[in-house]
Specification:
354 residues; 5-stranded antiparallel β-sheet; homotetramer; Chorismate synthase, AroC fold; FMN binding (chains A, B, C, D); 6 helices; flavoprotein (chains A, B, C, D); alpha+beta
Chain lengths: 354, 354, 354, 354
Amino acid sequence: MNTFGNIFKLTSFGESHGTAIGGVIDGCPAGIVLDMEFVQGELDKRRPGQSELTTSRNESDKVEFLSGIYEGKTIGTPIGFIVWNNNQHSSDYDSLKNVFRPSHADYTYFQKYRHYDHRGGGRSSARETIARVVAGAIAKLILQKKGIKITAYVSQVGDICLSKSYIQVDFSNIEKTAVRCPDLEIAKQMIALIQSVRLRGDTVGGVITCICHGVPVGLGNPVFGKLSAALSNAMMSINATKGFDYGMGFNGIHRKGSEANDLYYRNKDGKIVTKSNYSGGIQGGISSGEDIYFRVAFKPVATLLQGQLTVDKDGNEIQLEVKGRHDPCVLPRAVPIVESMAAMTILDYYLYNY
Amino acid sequence: MNTFGNIFKLTSFGESHGTAIGGVIDGCPAGIVLDMEFVQGELDKRRPGQSELTTSRNESDKVEFLSGIYEGKTIGTPIGFIVWNNNQHSSDYDSLKNVFRPSHADYTYFQKYRHYDHRGGGRSSARETIARVVAGAIAKLILQKKGIKITAYVSQVGDICLSKSYIQVDFSNIEKTAVRCPDLEIAKQMIALIQSVRLRGDTVGGVITCICHGVPVGLGNPVFGKLSAALSNAMMSINATKGFDYGMGFNGIHRKGSEANDLYYRNKDGKIVTKSNYSGGIQGGISSGEDIYFRVAFKPVATLLQGQLTVDKDGNEIQLEVKGRHDPCVLPRAVPIVESMAAMTILDYYLYNY
Amino acid sequence: MNTFGNIFKLTSFGESHGTAIGGVIDGCPAGIVLDMEFVQGELDKRRPGQSELTTSRNESDKVEFLSGIYEGKTIGTPIGFIVWNNNQHSSDYDSLKNVFRPSHADYTYFQKYRHYDHRGGGRSSARETIARVVAGAIAKLILQKKGIKITAYVSQVGDICLSKSYIQVDFSNIEKTAVRCPDLEIAKQMIALIQSVRLRGDTVGGVITCICHGVPVGLGNPVFGKLSAALSNAMMSINATKGFDYGMGFNGIHRKGSEANDLYYRNKDGKIVTKSNYSGGIQGGISSGEDIYFRVAFKPVATLLQGQLTVDKDGNEIQLEVKGRHDPCVLPRAVPIVESMAAMTILDYYLYNY
Amino acid sequence: MNTFGNIFKLTSFGESHGTAIGGVIDGCPAGIVLDMEFVQGELDKRRPGQSELTTSRNESDKVEFLSGIYEGKTIGTPIGFIVWNNNQHSSDYDSLKNVFRPSHADYTYFQKYRHYDHRGGGRSSARETIARVVAGAIAKLILQKKGIKITAYVSQVGDICLSKSYIQVDFSNIEKTAVRCPDLEIAKQMIALIQSVRLRGDTVGGVITCICHGVPVGLGNPVFGKLSAALSNAMMSINATKGFDYGMGFNGIHRKGSEANDLYYRNKDGKIVTKSNYSGGIQGGISSGEDIYFRVAFKPVATLLQGQLTVDKDGNEIQLEVKGRHDPCVLPRAVPIVESMAAMTILDYYLYNY
């Protein structure tokens, strides 16, 4: 399905080689000043070809708002927006018309849809994320007014891992390198790895860490409305994701309960807080007021510039050589998408309560 | 919220110390023979006190169906069912009336609900899973008829890890030990660890692995209806979960793309299959026909039989001693819950297509 | 489907000849005092056999709450409730096992469900309304605290019509007669008509009028979330309904626009109000603060104590004689159901805003 | 809210004086040939200024598809479409910036939205129906392939009423006059009435009748998923509607049950059919296979070219004179909208079953 959210809802449309990508945001509160520069800036962050690490596609996507805004503010009606598709090299994909690319969605799509658009991955392509980032930017603007800040960064590429806690990391460094890792030493190593992988025509995966700061207590519902489940659903809807964990996550299994509890105490201001935050800001599915932090694992992207053996629709084996422009590592580009999905999810739950 | 699913929908109700736990299943196809023994058997699997590993609560929950069934078959109308609450020791919890148990949902619930039921964790308690297991059992019955089999087992407890691929594991061993690990050697080590942790009044977490075999190709939708996102949402809705990954998951980050692609070929029967299954049976959010396998991480349970420092509603520090009956490790009991959530999710997507 | 509402949600279950009828209410705010007498009283109002007009079924339905309530107040968790089925004469229906009753749902159900429960109409029976009335009673309690009052009454039976505006009617008279018409003269005529129809073994239909007083301005959304559409959907979900209109409705067609506009003016208290209320309290799909009033048309009930020619499942013509206990006119019994559906709808929209 | 449907879903956006009107259709099956001429033709039918009866606004709306279509067929992905707004006279509305037009949505909108777009009624304007008609056209194309035909016509204007049953009416006459009434004699009278009303600067309402032919048995669900409830919800979502009834509707109250039952018999082909169709093709909320027929009542449009007394935002009384271009009767233009809503509803339920 193509709609995300319950109250703040994004319905997206558009194939990467169709006429336009776009979306409709329903449930956006009225009276929000729309900072167009900020929205366009977020969209620019996701573009490939913005650094030496990524491909040269150099898409300059300008978002156009068609409704829902009057005199610079939202009016509470659905916000329709589009980004025209240009600069898409359809011919790069012509050799792929009848071929199933390994680990791509082609085979599953063919089985499902029969008549489908083979060009550029149709709706499984990363260009579909444009709509997410536009809606996410608007969500961020609204959350910022409530003192809620969403920050994501690359914390692992292949075997290169930033193992420090987010508390010890300087967020202002994130945008200083193309790889969006806030530890400049580790960032260098990551860049070197990506370059070498690229030269070999291979790809590499990694992990993005995200922190949601200032989320008030009480968002989420026990049982089936857990905020942790909603965040995992949001992250796992991003292309190329393979895993999600929050708080101590998969690594926390090595701790005993006595080593992993967040003990309550009353602080200097008389407020009830916890000494630690192993839970990652969510207890029993409901936000606790502490920082929410989680990780998203991304697989190595499946388009290789190496040759690969595969089959076409009739089952004949063929050697696949893909020309064109592809990424050795999607992690840096995925950072704004993770932030967008987090912003939309948090806002959706926020509006449910307030 | 308290409803799970889009077509095969479970709405659950009931607090652990209220009158009854129950649910309503809507969207169950008509004409399914309801194997009552099987359903009751699944419910028995989740019971504590069934082995030396778990607590002595010894709840014998008998499910009672109130509607939706006629002459032993489903009739397509909503299936209402209840399990009466007995054998709940309310007095065990009386010392907790005004106290926030560390890493429990108490504090977040108090902030959210004001007037809430402190006894036994209300709806955040594991007893709420009764409804999930009943609905999951019915879902399994329906899937079995379509040749779809769901199997889960404990693959990690603390540092003890069953690292073999599921392909090399013998499922018939799962129920042979209390810890539900199919490798009997590893199972022994797990049991020893749990016993020692229990004696110290501490708790330990772990990982459950789940395989969905025989899922046809085409379930799921790209963008926001990905089957991977739905499964993660379902698993993360279970109490005490901290993470989800599928296919090569978090561990796959160490592979390059060239080492992680599932290459297509035509097999002896002329069918198009893959040589490997790093994707875990889901490509681009849609099932590929291969086995779907995923992991769910559980944190160490938060109720300790050790004393702990905490605060009460007025912020006064108090020493918490919890009497009663608690689990050092919830993993074995969570296995039928993971299977239930998987069955309901797969069935929901199955009914969407067929 | 078996769920009604978006925020205040009722999921109902139960066949009239099954074990129990019941429901789960999700989204009920916490802290509401549950006036059990009031709820049981509303349920008693819908019972047949409470007057000389209706049949002698004499069902005494006692509602039992299973969850969601602690120390007499709602706790914000789902409220599960049941009413056990007794006093249902299954044998009255044995002659109907393979026969399609004219204008009943039998034929359509058979075509749809294959294996279905023929006894007493299964889920198409009026007993399914028990769940609606319980949830409606709770909704009324919540609305009353906000100064919102829902009142319905019978305004037409066959050709006997109460044509006065609701403004000129005395609501305290509604419960004074079995027919629930607030004009005692007209009520007498209605009763006489129903008696004569009953003696002939025939049935008659009518109209119920409903007023929602004190609904604040702003409930509803333009386009697809119109409060008028929601109310019509709610009313048309009641068995035997054939039509809905509000404000001047179908009769207003005879007016010109100049005769039908509600002109604004500022009243003595300085508040902006309208001189008239042809719109029926809803403008552009949003409540205006004025009384919402609407009508629901009910067809004559389809079970006749006269013989009727029909066919069985094999298409053979047979003469249908129905024994048992049936109503010549369902209008009086439908009054609490109309109020319940109105209360649930208004509350659902109220909670969306506040 | 701005989304209609459960499976075949339309999300619409756009204010009449904004940049564009548009929508996204999700859930459209793949492989449907999109007859662009037919879609544009349906859109042309709703335009004002196409006859001497309506206003001279002369909007020529051309729909543009942005996604979801490849080589002329739908591909199963969301279909995004827009219609650019031009030819909207903003200045006609400048006198209205702070004034509440009687029986318009202005007052309720102001109360609800604070900051809203006063020009042309924003989203409460009839231009929003563009999206409905585009989606409805596509729905009709799909239904036609299944042998399902939707036909609507004007059956009443003011006191002029076409009282014949739809069975005796010649549908080929509908488009022969501007008023879209299939009885040419009655049509003349209706046109005369509308002209005279227009000269007086007044407005008049009426009724549209709609027939859905060829709907298979089994669409709809008892309880809350009744097809009759869904149709009423769809119709009542149209601007200016005041009532809905189907089958014998409000007029059927005058019949006794014995005079209103549809008796079953086996016809020459051995098929089980009914002798009559008082039920209007829906029994117990489920389609019976017979023609579904219903009526929708429209109030006289609220914009008058006569002066009217009203208040502005500060409560000061002012005399309202509206310049511009307005309709004395919206009924003819509403015919394609009624058909669109019926088509979308029937298709939604059809896809649920098949």
